[in-house]
Design goal:
With about 45 residues, the chain is of the alpha+beta class. It is built from 1 helix and 2 strands, in the order E-H-E.
């Protein structure tokens, strides 16, 4: 079992990074974790 973690921000490359993390998964037991990091004053919703 493999764990992959991808850390993203509001940059346009986020989708590419998430896809790359997904591509690293080998089987159904592997897990992908995506962490979004933003400045506490940044309104992203």
């Amino acid at each position: 079992m493999k764990n992959i973690m991808v850390c993203v921000t509001q940059q346009k490359t986020c989708e590419r990074l998430i896809q790359y993390g997904h591509d690293l998964l080998d089987d159904a037991d592997d897990e992908l974790f995506i962490i979004h990091v933003a400045h506490y004053q940044f309104k992203f919703l």
